[in-house]
């Protein structure tokens, strides 16, 4: 929720209604990485797509923070998970539970993943627009990489997850972590004085997991 309260500070005031508990067994840095990341994945997979056991889903950009949690959550719900990732990240997304991996530098994901029940786009742009093409008739896709593109096929839904901050949502993420259904993504920690470098890495859009700024 960039620009709401701001986070580059030693202390900030938040409403109690949007604060959840820290999950047992994770560090404060891991908990920070799971906050909005976990809420977004839960909103997309559970609430928006309502993914069911036995369905097949394509998750774009599997090595990213939200996508990495979404892979785990989709597997927890019994889905068959296909994801896109560069060759350097294949082992990582496989460790998260991906059943099939498409190297977007080597293959056309539309042809490789045709006939999915659902899709989650975390990339946007042309990738987001083409994500709809992998869906079977009656399929649905959630878009967090940008606005949902118009669907040219009747019965295919292009949806925007309504990511709502709430104590209930945060505690749902904590419950999933404590149950072993999901784990925090790989994180890279920076000192607050290194915020500019962290932004440069983030804006390159090839990050594995999440970046965390550690405030003294």
TrEMBL record:
Gene Ontology terms, MF aspect: NADPH binding; oxidoreductase activity, acting on NAD(P)H
Keyword Cytoplasm: no
InterPro entries: ER, NAD(P)-bd_dom_sf
Lineage: Bacteria, Pseudomonadati, Pseudomonadota, Alphaproteobacteria, Hyphomicrobiales
Pfam families named among the record's database cross-references: ADH_zinc_N_2
Highest taxon above the source species: Bacteria
SUPFAM superfamilies: NAD(P)-binding Rossmann-fold domains (SSF51735)
Assigned keywords, A-Z: NADP, Oxidoreductase
SMART domains the record matches: PKS_ER
Organism, as annotated: Methylobacterium hispanicum
Protein name: Phenolphthiocerol synthesis polyketide synthase type I Pks15/1
Enoyl reductase (ER) domain: residues covered: 3-213
């Amino acid at each position: 929720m960039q620009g709401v309260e701001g986070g580059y500070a030693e202390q900030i005031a938040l409403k109690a209604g949007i604060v959840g508990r820290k999950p047992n067994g994770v560090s404060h840095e891991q908990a920070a990485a799971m906050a909005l990341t976990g809420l977004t994945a839960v909103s997309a997979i559970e609430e928006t797509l309502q993914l069911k056991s036995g369905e097949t889903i394509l998750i774009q950009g599997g090595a990213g923070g939200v996508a990495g949690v979404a892979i785990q959550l989709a597997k927890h719900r019994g889905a068959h998970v296909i994801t896109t990732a560069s060759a350097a990240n294949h082992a990582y997304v496989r460790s998260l539970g991906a059943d099939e991996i498409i190297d977007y530098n080597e293959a056309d994901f539309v042809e490789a993943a045709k006939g999915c029940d659902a899709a989650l786009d975390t990339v946007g742009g042309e990738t987001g627009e083409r994500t709809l093409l992998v869906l079977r008739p009656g399929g649905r896709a959630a878009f967090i990489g940008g606005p949902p593109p118009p669907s040219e096929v009747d019965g295919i839904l292009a949806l925007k997850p309504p990511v709502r901050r709430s104590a209930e949502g945060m505690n749902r993420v904590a419950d999933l972590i404590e149950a072993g259904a999901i784990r925090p993504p790989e994180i890279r920690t920076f000192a607050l004085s290194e915020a500019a470098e962290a932004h440069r890495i983030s804006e390159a859009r090839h990050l594995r997991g999440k970046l965390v700024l550690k405030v003294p």
